[in-house]
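Raw record, unedited: EamA domain-containing protein
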Amino acid sequence: MSERKPIDRTAATVMVILCLIWGTQQVAIKWAAPAMSATLQMGLRSGLAALGTLAVAFHRREQRWLNRATLVPGLLVGSTFGLEFVFAGEALRYTTASHVTIYLYSAPIMAAVGLGLRYRDERLHPAQWIGVIIAFAGVALAFLGRGDPDRYPAMRLGDALSLAAAASWAVSSFILRGSRLANAPASVSLFYQLCGAFVLAGGMAVTLGETAIKPTAWLAVMLTWQTLVVAFASYLTWFALLRRYSASRLGVLSFMTPVFGVVAGIALLGEKIDTNFAIGGCMILGGIVLASTRLPRLGRRATA
């Protein structure tokens, strides 16, 4: 298994762009939910993006990786990725897009712990753990400032589903890192995951009777954005990064997504911002900076 590179300027820049994209996706899905259920949206976009990803694999002559050696881990990673979409889609029925985004991005913490215990090159050093703790505390503080869940009992279920989605994402990352898919082309890994999301999220929508569709121009725009930009281009880029860089450190950088997500919720859905969120957002960003930049600099000085 090849060693993963530390985060450099290129990876950090790409991650900022990805986080901007991912930060808008829950808001976009919730915005289009009156025309199509969130779970059905996730299933449909995944199926369409899977076809595009398969085309990329054939264009690059990477289809040979779709074989018996990658089938079992592919099914496993597809199932966990699909469960993430099922849980997140259903969570949007009960809670706000901001809650889903904030809770969903506790996944990097879960993944970092598991990966750090299993792989030497994924271990976070003490200074980085401090940054992770600060960032996680910021996420918690930002969430606590969004309102009293006791006043909205349904939000408890939505929040729990969001955490289940985060756990599924973390397990997916762990499987991806520890299987033959770790060295497979990004198109192959993504194809397996999108197929799993299509089957599970689409199947859940049918099972729950969430198949009503009200065709509108806005729904078409949202589905196009989710399919081409979110589920296809951004995920393909993400898995390409995972092949080159430390997954735990990339996960820490993804803490920017909740900030972008809540800002998008404020701008597009009219959600309110409060002092707790402002403080929590600063803690998230500060923790990211500490965890992703301070240690490499210290390491370079120590080995100079």
